[in-house]
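Can you please make up a whole protein chain along with its C-alpha cells because I've never seen that pairing?
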Amino acid sequence: MLREKFTGLKRSLEYIQDFLNIQGESIWREELTRIINYAVEKESTALVNKKYQADLDYQDKHYVPTFIPVDANDFTFMGRLLRNITDSLGRGMYLDSLSSWYDPNGQQIFGLRYVHFLHEHLGTTFLQGLDRLIVYTLVSETKKF
C-alpha cells in the first residue's frame, strides 16, 4: 500500500515536470532532504540532552512540517521509524544466512528488502539521515552507562 502511494507520487511529479517544464524531481529531492535534515537534527538534540531550538537558520524562510507526537519520546517521523525498527528487532532473531530479522513465526521483520524499499522511494538522503540518527542513539545509550 505504501509502495503504491510513493510510486503514484513519483509518477505525478514526473507528469507535472513534463507538463510545466520544471524540475519536479529535483524540487522533491531538495525538499525531502531539508525535511529529513530538520527531523534528524530535532531528534538528535533530544537524544543528546540539549534543548531544541525551533529557530534554525536554514529553516527560518521555509515551511517546516509539524509532527504530531504519539508519545513523550516522539519528536519526528524519523525517530518514530527508528524506534519502530528497534522495537521490532527486539522481538525477533537475526538469521545471518538470510541477512534479515525474523519473528518466531518465520515472518521477515527487517532486512535488505526493507532497506531497498526505503532507498528506492525515499532516496539516499533518507538512509543517511537514518544512519545519523542511529549514531546519535548509540551515543545517547552509551552516555547512560
Observations:
- The CA atoms of residues 96 and 111 lie 11 Å apart.
- The helical segments are 2-20, 24-47, 77-90, 112-143.
- The first strand starts at residue 93 and ends at 95.
